[in-house]
Amino acid sequence: MNDLNRRNPCRLPMLLSLTLLTIVGLSILWEFHLEAYVMHWLNLPYDGDFEDAERWRFVLTSSGFSMISLIVPTIVLKRMVTSTQLSYRRLQRIQFQTETLAKYDSLSALINRRGFMDLLCERLAQHRCISIMLIDLDHFKAINDQHGHSGGDGVLVEVADRLKHIARLHGGTAARLGGDEFCLLFLDYRDERELSDIAATTIQRVSEAFVEPSTPVRLGATIGISRSWIDATEASALLHCADTAMYRGKNAGRSMFNFYDNEYERQLRAQADLDQALRHAVEREEIVPFFQPIVTLPSQTIVGFEVLARWARPDGSTGMPTDFIPILERLGLIPAMTRSLVKQACRAASFWDDTLHLSLNVSATMITDELFPDRLAEQLRHERFPYERFEVEITEEALVGNLDAAQRNLSKLHAYGISVALDDFGIGYSGLYHLTRLSIDKIKIDRSFFEAGSIDHLPMVEAILGMARSLKMKVTAEGIEDFHLPYLPKWLAENGCHYAQGYLYGRPQAGSTIAAAVHAPLTVCAAAQN
Ligand code: G
Ligand code: G
Ligand code: MN
């Protein structure tokens, strides 16, 4: 209807005039000729003796009424049509504006994520070769923090202009996907070298100083590049590939570009799977305590156990702490794991002789956490495990990061009656400062001092034992194995070493296997006594 009217604006009046003429014509025809025939044909009485004036009056009256009944609705209809047309056009205009808004970024005037995805889909549907460069600004947050959001916006606009210029230069399209994330899209095949050059130039251009905000701001950019048909065939997958490549650069130090690499993505996915599996492992208490006996010297009877974390995987295999502790550290799950280990260890120990001690390894993050001593004490009270039979082991590395906090926490533990052992002593800092200023009760001489067949380190062990004696500290020798028999345990006892630990007395084992060994009389490993 719209088109019809636009093409032929005088069609409606013409149509009206024609209709009117037809009506008048028909009236005349009826009044002067047809009426008599029809009445006669219908066999109805008819007095055709009318004056012409009468006939004309009838023609005019009937035509006049017909005209009124035609023109009024036509005018009303016409008005309605015009107003509908106006609304329709207004709607079209609004729709166009909304679509523009929805596809463009109002700050930078670049196409936004939606516009970019539409374009990408369109080009992929045309089977075009596409390369995309996902650009994420480095340290943009610092700019926002230093110069406020308006300063940040100024930088974004400037970056957008620089990217627009690069896009124009290489026949591409620039987009702002959101925040400080931009994208360049290039059509048709470009080799790796050309793309590398463009990416390098882009990083360089973005890193150049900014005029606004006027304070010299150094920005960087990390770029991930992906190519259609090589890396992915679908728009969102292609963007995901560029994202993965970009994150690779972020992890490797920023201000660099990377092409998407399948293998890297596979590794990332494996890491994410492992992270997830470990989250579940902590939640479901798959991280279990293993217990390694600690014996007193010279009798070599078991006085306690070191608690060592193991991952009892659902498939029956056992994971070692070196494989999962660093991951749990990164995931911030060490406190949760330690809590669960303490719970499980205390419950296992409740079935054993009530003189046995437990020794727990505590990581750096925990030993400097202000709440750790109180929480541990609270948990031990809850588990009804006496503080005097509990010990925490820390390494010197764990202490040095935040010595003040560590010192406060060790004193607190001490006040509760929980003892503290310095683990792996002799291989790290071995600082006298730590030994003399911190509340440390025990030194655990690292197992590397007791290597197989070597007595080279014994003078050093002797010196450590002498020092411990002077400082009134207890000493545990770690890593005592079968091949040290019978000489080493005896030598250690004679030189004032209080405790020993190692495969000779038992490997780290599950709580269930310990129960039988320590239930009744506290027997020592038969071999050890010989
Ligand atoms: O047997 P093993 O491989 O368990 O021990 C390797 C190291 O892992 C130990 O020396 C210890 O430092 C660390 N480790 C073992 N269990 C735990 C634990 O529960 N918490 C922390 N923080 N470290 C542990
Ligand atoms: O926390 P610490 O570093 O002390 O952990 C003890 C580690 O030493 C555990 O991984 C444990 O399996 C390991 N271990 C304990 N006894 C021996 C031993 O006699 N020989 C060797 N090679 N390793 C031991
Ligand atoms: Mn230890």
From TrEMBL:
Which residue spans traverse the membrane?
A: 12-30
- Residue limits of the EAL domain? 271-522
User: Per its UniProt record, what InterPro entries does this chain match?
Assistant: Biofilm_reg_signaling, EAL_dom, EAL_sf, GGDEF_dom, Nucleotide_cyclase, Rev_trsase/Diguanyl_cyclase
Residues forming the GGDEF domain are 128-262
Residue spans making up a coiled coil are none
Q: Which CDD domains match?
A: EAL, GGDEF
Sorted keywords for this record are: Membrane, Transmembrane, Transmembrane helix
Concerning SUPFAM superfamilies, the annotation shows: EAL domain-like, Nucleotide cyclase
Protein name per its UniProtKB record: EAL domain-containing protein
Query: What organism is the protein native to?
Result: Pseudomonas baltica
Lineage, highest ranks first: Bacteria, Pseudomonadati, Pseudomonadota, Gammaproteobacteria, Pseudomonadales
